[in-house]
Amino acid sequence: MNNHHRIANKRGDDDSNNIQIENIYGIPNDKEKLMMQAQKMSKQMKQATSTKKQDLDKAFTSFSLNLKESDFDNGMKLREELHDLNEQP
């Protein structure tokens, strides 16, 4: 294991973040920083999408049990938010 891998792991980076840091001291350059930021944003997007999907399931389950218009409207609102979230570049 190279020194920069040990330093990266000491910082708390995940092994799933397989961004190769070229600097022997473990200091990322601009390109590596951008790649790390893109990975972080991707992870946040996946978490947000997962949360919205769970909320959508709960809303439609609630609607199917009591058939209230407010539950249906809430479910449709969440569906649109989820759709908009997935359309972002």
State the end-to-end distance.
36 Å
Percent strand: under 5%
Q: Please give the radius of gyration in angstroms.
A: 20 Å
Gross morphology: rod-shaped
Structural class, please? Answer: mainly alpha
Sheet bearing the most strands, described? none
Fraction of residues in helices? over 70%
In total, how many beta strands?
0
Order of helices and strands: HHH
Mean pLDDT: 79
Number of helices: 3
Low-confidence stretches: 1-10
Total number of domains: 1
Task: Describe, in plain words, how this protein is organized in 3D.
This protein is an all-alpha fold. It has helices at residues 3-10, 30-66, 69-87. It has one domain. The chain is built from three helices and no strands. The longest helix has 37 residues, at 30-66. Residues 1-10 have low confidence and may be disordered.
Task: Please describe the topology of this protein.
Blueprint: H1 3-10, H2 30-66, H3 69-87
Task: List key phrases describing it.
89 residues, rod-shaped, mainly alpha
Condensed summary:
It is built from three helices and no strands. It is an all-alpha fold and 89 residues long.
